[in-house]
């Protein structure tokens, strides 16, 4: 009887052990050795546009606060009060002039500094120094408007970690002001690697009716969309100009109005930043997919629609309707 864990009679290089998708020990090891060490995407800078704008996120199982500080810089902190380790911010997003822990009302500025302690005289005997009790900061950086954090102080800078794959989308993401015009999230009953693997190959394109109708190369013997592999597990696929999406074939109109800088009309590009971000960009709109592992068989996926910040109302309606077609 096959237990599901017995290896086949093949060299180890010729199969995957299915326990990588279900084993709790392997999942814990992945969180520690991957997610706690690499740069991870958390949001787009437009979601923290004004001073005091904040978001709370989970990264490798750690709660974080992202906030636009008074100096205009987006900063990240552990969402943990320095007093009794309660969560300082319990809302998912909002705007604040300061953060106050609900438990004992310790207060923190937007720069993370501890600005207030309830009944401070009670700590006189131990000479408590609140200047040393600010929120603990986390490395945070931005590239092409994409906000990343890294829990490890030893990991290379963000630009070095991502490398040249960002060149494929740097111009459309960096030339003009953009905004997130749509956000949705859902928990999927799948291991995070299945989502990552699926986004890294084109074989599954035949599954989608709209792909078969609007992308002629999907059913052809050859494809102008070239798979490109990069260091640190990043990958992508885009053409050198030969691939054109024929939206009209599926009945879509005006799907490319307001083309992004650096993009050709009816063009598409996809890049995967390992391990948690897919950027699906086409003529006038971008979709950002963020993956957050929760358990071996559970993954939170956040979908963001991203486009030019200032467009006519009719373009806004069209891209809201079309941005998630692929």
Q: Any idea what the CATH architecture of the largest domain is? A: Alpha-Beta Complex
**CA-based gyration radius:** 23 Å
Task: State the low-pLDDT regions, or none.
Answer: none
Profile the largest sheet.
Answer: 7 strands, antiparallel
Strand order of the largest sheet: 1-10-9-4-3-2-5
Shape: globular
Rounded mean pLDDT score: 91
The CATH H-level superfamily of the largest domain is Naphthalene 1,2-dioxygenase Alpha Subunit, Chain A, domain 1
CATH class label of the largest domain:
Alpha Beta
How would you spell out the order of helices and strands?
Answer: HEEEEEEEEEEHHEHHEEEEEEH
Which range does the strand content fall in? 25-35%
Number of helices: 6
Number of domains: 2
Secondary structure: number of strands: 17
Q: What is the helix content?
A: 10-25%
Head-to-tail CA distance between termini = 42 Å
Going by helix content, strand content and strand pairing, the class is alpha+beta
CATH topology of the largest domain: Naphthalene 1,2-dioxygenase Alpha Subunit, Chain A, domain 1
What does this structure look like?
The strands form 3 sheets. The protein has a 7-stranded antiparallel beta sheet, with no helix packed on it. It is of the alpha+beta class and 326 residues long. The radius of gyration is 23 Å and the shape is globular. The chain contains 6 helices and 17 strands. 32% of the residues are buried. β16 (285-295) and β17 (298-308) form a beta hairpin. The model has no long low-confidence stretch (mean pLDDT 91). It has 2 domains: 40-154, Rieske [2Fe-2S] iron-sulphur domain (Rieske Iron-sulfur Protein), CATH 2.102.10; 163-322, Alpha-Beta Complex (Naphthalene 1,2-dioxygenase Alpha Subunit, Chain A, domain 1).
């Amino acid at each position: 009887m096959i237990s599901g864990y017995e290896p086949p009679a093949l060299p180890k290089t010729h199969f995957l052990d299915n326990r990588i998708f279900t084993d709790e020990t392997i999942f814990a090891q992945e969180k520690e050795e991957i997610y706690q060490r690499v740069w991870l995407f958390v949001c787009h800078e437009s979601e923290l546009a004004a001073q005091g704008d904040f978001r709370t996120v989970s990264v490798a199982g750690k709660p974080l606060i992202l906030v636009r500080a008074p100096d205009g810089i987006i900063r990240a902190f552990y969402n943990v009060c320095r007093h009794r380790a309660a969560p300082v911010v319990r809302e998912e997003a909002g705007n604040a002039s300061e953060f106050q822990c609900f438990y004992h009302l310790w207060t923190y500025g937007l720069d993370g500094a501890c600005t207030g302690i309830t009944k401070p005289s009670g700590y006189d005997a131990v000479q408590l120094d609140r200047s040393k009790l600010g929120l603990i900061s986390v490395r945070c950086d931005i590239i092409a408007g994409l906000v990343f954090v890294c829990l490890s102080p030893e990991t290379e800078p963000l630009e070095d970690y991502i490398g040249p794959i960002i060149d494929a989308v740097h111009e459309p993401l960096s030339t003009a002001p953009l905004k997130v015009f749509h956000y949705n999230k859902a928990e999927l009953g799948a291991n995070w690697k299945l989502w990552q693997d699926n986004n890294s190959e084109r074989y599954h394109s035949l599954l989608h009716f709209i792909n078969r109708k609007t992308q002629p190369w999907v059913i052809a013997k050859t494809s102008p969309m070239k798979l490109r592999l990069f260091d640190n597990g990043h990958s992508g696929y885009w053409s050198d100009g030969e691939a054109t999406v024929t939206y009209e074939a599926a009945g879509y109109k005006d799907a490319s109005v307001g083309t992004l800088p650096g993009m050709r009309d009816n063009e598409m590009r996809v890049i995967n930043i390992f391990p948690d971000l897919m950027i699906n960009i086409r003529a006038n709109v971008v979709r950002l997919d963020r993956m957050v592992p929760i358990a071996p068989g559970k993954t939170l996926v956040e979908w963001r629609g991203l486009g030019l910040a200032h467009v006519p109302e009719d373009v806004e309606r069209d891209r809201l309707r079309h941005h998630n077609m692929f």
